[in-house]
Specification:
242 residues; mainly alpha; 0% strand; elongated
């Protein structure tokens, strides 16, 4: 990036103030994402404990009923298999091929050379570099050249990639930091929107809406599933006695 020499102190102060304001806004958006994720996780646990296990129990009963009604289980026990049964394929799968290529190795070396944590001059910068190295190692293990290229491109556009301690370097870092932060609320909004588009979140919203009216949809689901489980259990017992 080409920048004019002799940046004015006022301009740098304005950029610093912009960074502080944007970081506060970004923190608030991340807070929204964190709270939404926590609410979704809590509902997932509640649903799994109260409803999910009953669904699994009912599915198992219905599978047992289908097998009993068709007589599949008794036929297998009586016949012990026939000569017409297809042979079991005992061939071993070939070992997975290496996912890395020379191009990926070269790209990984370029990434490591640019972002290695040992090159950081502050603890904060070291932490950022370390997080990127974890991503790069994961991409290298998968042979994902595109992800490695994205990591390298993002690094080259980042404030940490600007060397020097003079005012011009400081200005470029601040400009890049502003651009960096301005892109993140869009990502946070996308993540938030994605969570709220899931079927689990829509179910949670429905449960919350009915709870506000004094209704408990989860309890209704549990009662209905327990009734269906009782009916299926009685049918299975009757088939076993017949």
């Amino acid at each position: 990036m080409l920048v004019p020499s002799g940046s004015h102190p006022q301009e740098i102060d304005d950029l610093r103030a912009r960074v502080v304001a944007l970081e506060a806004e970004l923190e608030a958006r991340h807070g929204d994402v964190t709270r939404t994720r926590a609410a979704l996780d809590a509902f997932r646990i509640r649903y799994r404990q109260q409803v999910g296990r009953l669904h699994e129990q009912l599915d198992e009963l219905e599978a047992a009923l289908a097998e009993a009604e068709l007589g599949i289980l008794s036929e297998r026990v009586a016949s012990g298999g026939t000569a017409n049964d297809p042979p079991i394929d005992v061939r071993l799968e070939s070992a997975p091929r290496s996912l890395t290529s020379d191009a990926v190795r070269r790209l990984f070396r370029d990434v490591a050379k640019a972002i290695h944590p040992d090159l950081a001059d502050t603890d904060e910068a070291r932490d950022r570099r370390h997080a990127l190295m974890i991503e790069a190692n994961r991409a290298y293990a998968l042979g994902d050249a595109e992800q490695l290229r994205e990591i390298l491109d993002a690094w080259e556009r980042s404030p940490d990639a600007v060397p020097g301690s003079d005012r011009d370097a400081m200005r470029v870092r601040l400009v890049r930091r502003v651009a960096q932060i301005e892109a993140q609320p869009v990502m946070a909004a996308g993540e938030l929107g994605g969570m709220k588009e899931t079927s689990l979140w829509k179910l949670k919203a429905m449960v919350d809406e009915e709870a506000a009216k004094g209704n408990d949809l989860i309890a209704d689901m549990v009662r209905r599933l327990n009734r269906d489980i009782l009916v299926a259990t009685n049918r299975l017992d009757a088939l076993k006695r017949s």
